[in-house]
Design a protein that fits this description.
This protein is α+β, with helices and mostly antiparallel strands. The chain is 19% helix and 38% strand. A hairpin with a 6-residue loop joins strand 2 and strand 3. The radius of gyration is 20 Å and the shape is globular.
């Protein structure tokens, strides 16, 4: 590659925050405006950030080796989506793992013998300040009737693990955080295979 194709750039540095002010508080987010200074140019710029508690995703794996998926209507895309159980980390839960077990039970009526942390991601670091934690719910079995809140209509179904790649590549699973969760699961399975 020529020097023209790859110009020399300075190392990227954190931007000093000059000011931060809240703009609004909503049910699942608070919105703030940050004013930060570019370390490269010295100029100040405004940025809008959505603060939210952390989120969780759960891959429920039954004793028979099937995965519990859910269908629900999503207002952002105005579509019924195919996903895994998930939700918000509540402060009273005390940890993402406890929140994961609670959301699994509420949305599907399933409980697991073990919650295995698989990894976490930043959902969108450009505008969101939180993280999304993924758990594998091992030996998930139905133990109760799902307890959906008034703003949820959820239907769950069992699918074979081997169907997941096709559900993603065919566009039936489109939620980016769900796809990230299945990537973590795939890496977890590979580590088990090589005995890591």
């Amino acid at each position: 590659m020529s020097d023209l194709a790859r110009p020399e750039t300075p190392n990227v540095q954190p931007w000093p925050k000059i000011e931060s002010r809240p703009l609004g508080s909503y049910r699942v987010f608070t919105l703030r405006q940050d004013t930060s200074r570019s370390p490269r140019t010295g100029r100040e710029h405004h940025f809008y950030v959505l603060d939210s508690t952390d989120w969780i995703n759960v891959i429920p794996l039954t004793p028979e080796g099937q995965i519990v998926l859910i269908r629900q209507y999503r207002h952002g895309t105005e579509e019924v989506t195919l996903e895994i159980p998930g939700g918000m980390v509540d402060l009273e839960d005390g940890s993402p793992a406890v929140s994961a077990a609670r959301e699994l039970l509420e949305e599907t009526g399933y409980a697991a013998e073990e919650m295995v942390p698989l990894g976490s991601v930043s959902p969108n670091p450009a505008i969101l300040s939180n993280r999304c934690h993924t758990f594998l719910a091992r030996q998930a079995r139905p133990v109760a009737t799902p307890l959906m809140d008034g703003a949820e209509d959820i239907q769950f179904e069992l699918v074979e693990q081997s169907a997941i790649p096709h559900l993603i590549t065919s566009g039936q699973i489109t939620h980016a955080l769900v796809i990230a969760a299945f990537y973590f699961y795939e890496q977890h399975q590979k580590r088990l295979e090589i005995g890591d």
